[in-house]
Known about the structure:
Elements: E1 2-7, H1 19-22, H2 27-40, E2 44-49, H3 53-61, E3 69-73, H4 82-91, E4 95-99, E5 121-124, H5 129-142
Parallel strand pairs: 1-2, 1-3, 3-4, 4-5
The structure holds 1,3,4-trihydroxy-5-OXO-cyclohexanecarboxylic acid (DQA).
Subunit structure: Homododecamer.
Pathway: Metabolic intermediate biosynthesis; chorismate biosynthesis; chorismate from D-erythrose 4-phosphate and phosphoenolpyruvate: step 3/7
Pfam families: DHquinase_II (PF01220)
Amino acid sequence: xxxxxxxxxxxxxxxxxxxxxxxxxxxxxxxxxxxxxxxxxxxxxxxxxxxxxxxxxxxxxxxxxxxxxxxxxxxxxxxxxxxxxxxxxxxxxxxxxxxxxxxxxxxxxxxxxxxxxxxxxxxxxxxxxxxxxxxxxxxxxxx
Length: 143
Ligand code: DQA
């Protein structure tokens, strides 16, 4: 199965964000780890990151037929970007939401997710390991 791993705003700056929330990996290292997890699960990963909401939405528009599932970490857009929610609905591809940090137990605004109810599952607060779980969830969902 082909799985798209889509990262949003500020995730490319991972190495410069608070390690207490996000761990100490750089973004390149994060993607490399996820690639390893995908191969262990016999999944075909493809990666995309942007800081532009328009590009993020455009990427979702193009997913149908190119990916069997999608893992999304939209960063702060998660909490308010209704256009991303609409684009995910249009994409019509099984999705799992991932957050590195424990969004339920940080600032109040991070407890809201505009995409959650469109997703098969949400994984948060497990750092890079959360992506392994998300991949396994999608694999089971697609079986
Ligand atoms: C994040 C959590 C968001 O609240 C934050 O804005 C991010 C990263 C995470 O992976 O924990 O940029 O999505």
